[in-house]
Amino acid sequence: MKDAWAADTLQVIRNLMERSAVYRRTLAPICLAVGILGLAAGAFGWFQDIDTARGFAAYWMVVAGVALALALGVVRQQALRDAEPFWSPPARRVAQAMLPSLFAGVLAGLVILLPAWRDPLHAWWLPGAWMLTFGTATHAAGFFMPRGIKLFAWLFATLGAALLLYVNARSYAAGMPSLRHAHAVMGLAFGGLHFAYGLYLAVTERRARRA
Fold it and tell me: Is 116 helix (H, G, I), strand (E, B) or coil?
């Protein structure tokens, strides 16, 4: 009985280590690609001055779709290189863990996107809501990834909550700046943080291989 329990425990530990190794290989290139995309999208939104609530929501939902396609492309490329299945059991678990929070993020975007009468400053709720839902989604996926991803998730969740509190305090008392600044916030948060985390992962992974 004890031998069977020990064998099951070892199998669980082995599976967790394998999942962690699988996603650590793909995290650095995914974060770097998404970071560059986010920074470029923030700069484009700033200079193009997309200043309607519907335009802001639609623009960043398209950017999120492109980022998701990029991430899946990197995972697929890694799977082909290692002769592994793309839709593997670890991949399914990560997707299932992230899905509820990502669905909440899409719903938040649709709330601003669908009515044509939204005031432009209503879109200021989206950056904080998206940071919060992305943080919770990433934290859920962190149970199948390296430990540091949970700290990354908490950073997004904390920044999102702080931004929502700020918007709630400012929007009724003193107003908010134009949506050009919201594009900058999105670019720095989703682009800058992903790029910085990708650089950190790339450097630490290179050091680990040398050791």
Answer: coil
Q: Are 140 and 98 in contact (CB under 8 A)?
A: yes
Q: Which residues contact 190 (CB under 8 A, 6 or more apart)?
A: 34, 38, 42, 67, 130, 131, 134
- How far apart, in whole angstroms, are the C-alpha atoms of residue 127 and residue 108? 10
Buried/exposed 183-192: b ≥16 CB within 10 Å, e otherwise: bbbbbebbbe
**Model-level pTM?**
0.83
Decide: helix, strand or coil at residue 112. helix
pLDDT tens string 107-151: 999 999 888 777 878 899 999 999 999 999 999 888 777 778 889
CA 173 to chain CA centroid, Å, is 31
Triad 176, 181, 182: Cα angle to 5°: 85
Residue 61: closest CA among 72, 50, 76? 50
Q: Which amino acid is at 96?
A: Q
27-63 pLDDT, tens per residue? 888 999 999 999 999 999 999 988 889 999 999 999 9
DSSP 8-class letter at 35: H
